[in-house]
Automatic annotation (TrEMBL):
The lineage of its organism: Bacteria, Pseudomonadati, Pseudomonadota, Gammaproteobacteria, Alteromonadales. ATP binds at P107, I108, G109, S110, G111, L112, G113, S114, S115, A116, S117. This is Homoserine kinase. It catalyses: L-homoserine + ATP = O-phospho-L-homoserine + ADP + H(+). Pathway: Amino-acid biosynthesis; L-threonine biosynthesis; L-threonine from L-aspartate: step 4/5. It comes from Paraglaciecola hydrolytica. GO terms for molecular function: ATP binding; homoserine kinase activity. It holds the Pfam family GHMP_kinases_C.
Length: 329
């Protein structure tokens, strides 16, 4: 245990935005994002010791969340964490309560792992806070990931880890979901730039899943499996040309792009201006372009900001992969 937390009665956690699916890995791949200009693209959750539980919500997108703190996912994270402690024989009445503050920097329904960011930050900071108080590690990373996935499932309608895993672990992750091994870290191309653009409209994960067909043709299934296998092999061999060639979505994008105004035009511009790949970030409406040149990334970022963004809540960032993931401070 890190003793730096022992003397602190308050802690904060930051959890980065993420790209679910990464085009070719529906529900199986995820990537954490970090803007190169140093701006925050993720949520923060603060906890401090208190006589009773409370939750405050602040930040740019705070007004987009339910007004009642009891229905906020961070409140649900707190109660779920306590119930998991009870399963370990640690009663909640033996521990002090906390006052929590959610700094909501990510828009809702953006395809940037907004709910996952809040969930990851909440569980991570709660675990560090109570670990310091109890004096022993309470939950390991895989146990936390299982909790995170369960809470994420309450919002999206099904348990999946392609946002919470990269948000928590950082980098590029492959969902294993085998026993206690929830997710695996993958090699990356450190010089790639990921342009991430949020249009400003909202697309719910549940709605984006509902538009998908219930069955996938055999040919599509084979193509999906081949692309994912070749992509991972190319990562380990650092063959970026082959890896980029695999980054097309044959499962969700053909259906989901109808929900995203100017998607086809944006893809065409990005590819014509040097992007290695272009796709939908998670369920959308955010999109991403992968570039191996900063100059190309700047051109694409500017065009998306001027053409893909639909209103004043939209934004576009040039990012690289956040290799650190969630942090407590």
């Amino acid at each position: 245990m890190d003793t730096q937390y022992m003397q602190k009665k308050s802690l904060s956690a930051y959890a980065p935005a993420s790209i679910g699916n990464v085009s070719l890995g529906f529900d199986l791949l995820g990537a954490a994002l970090k803007p190169i200009d140093g701006s925050l693209l993720g949520d923060e959750v603060e906890v401090c010791q208190a006589d009773s539980f409370s939750l405050q919500i602040k930040g740019r997108f705070a007004d987009k969340l339910p007004a009642d703190p009891a229905s906020n996912i961070v409140t649900q994270c707190y109660h779920h964490y306590l119930s998991c402690l009870a399963n370990k024989g640690i009663a909640s009445d033996s521990l002090p309560a906390v006052a929590m503050t959610l700094h909501k920097h990510l828009p809702i329904g953006s395809g940037l792992g907004s709910s996952a960011s809040s969930i990851v930050a909440a569980f991570h900071v709660l675990n560090q806070f109570y670990t310091a108080l109890v004096g022993k590690k309470l939950f390991d990373d895989n146990e936390l990931l299982l909790m995170m996935g369960e809470l994420e499932g309450q919002i999206s309608g099904s348990v999946h880890y392609d946002n919470v895993a990269p948000c928590f672990m950082g980098g590029l992750t492959l969902m294993a979901e085998h026993g206690a091994q929830v997710a695996l870290p993958l090699p990356i191309f450190k010089h790639w730039y990921w342009v991430s653009c949020y249009s400003g409209i909202s697309v719910s994960t549940a709605a984006a899943r509902a538009i998908l067909p219930k069955q996938v043709p055999m040919g599509t299934t084979i193509q999906f499996g081949r692309q994912l296998a070749v992509f991972i092999d190319a990562l380990y061999r650092q063959d970026e040309k082959l890896a980029a060639a695999m980054m097309t979505d044959v499962v969700a994008e053909p259906y989901r792009k109808s929900l995203l105004p100017f998607f086809d035009e944006s893809r065409e511009f990005a590819i014509q201006n040097g992007a290695l790949a272009f796709g939908i970030s998670g369920s959308g409406p955010s999109v991403f372009a992968v570039c191996d040149s900063l100059e190309q990334a700047k051109v694409i970022n500017q065009w998306l900001a001027e053409n893909y963004i639909q209103n004043d809540t939209g934004f576009s960032h040039i990012c690289q992969l956040d290799q650190q993931g969630a942090v407590v401070y």
